[in-house]
Design goal:
alpha/beta; five-stranded parallel sheet; 45% helix; globular
Length: 143
């Protein structure tokens, strides 16, 4: 188990594409306030990694080979209620952002967003605040 660097939030990336995990690892490692603690590609690996690595935040894709990301969010929150989860997905945010929040995630961001917006979302969720795009916020408010 890796120790938490002083004053750095530990982030675990769960995505079934290794190139995405590696790219996100690079982005996270360049931040002075964040630490990449690991990357996994399946539901089973996600449970094991959360238990052993004890991340502060899980950056989670909705579509994982052999598993449903929304069910994983629900299950992780059931077992680790203090865990912060930010969903990062290509899925239609108009449909899936609210579902992700109801499942227990603190945020949803599209993979089409710029890196700086992703970092804003990560920091927002690490502060125990909800992050959604302005479009999703308007949809939820005016429903």
């Amino acid at each position: 188990m890796q120790k938490k660097p002083k004053n750095k939030s530990r982030i675990l990336v769960v995505d079934d594409h290794s190139v995405v995990r590696e790219g996100l690892a690079g982005v996270i490692k360049r931040q002075s306030d964040c630490c990449f603690c690991g990357g996994v590609g399946s539901v089973k690996e996600a449970y094991e990694a959360v238990e052993t690595l004890q991340p502060d935040l899980v950056l989670l894709d909705l579509w994982l080979g052999g598993g449903d990301g929304l069910e994983l969010v629900k299950s992780l929150k059931g077992h680790f209620p203090l865990l912060r989860i930010l969903v990062l997905s290509f899925s239609d945010e108009a449909i899936y952002a609210e579902r992700a929040l109801r499942a227990g995630a603190l945020g949803f961001i599209s993979k089409t967003q710029p890196t700086q917006e992703l970092l804003t979302a990560i920091r927002t969720v690490l502060a125990d605040e909800i992050y959604v795009s302005s479009n999703v916020a308007r949809m939820i408010l005016y429903k």
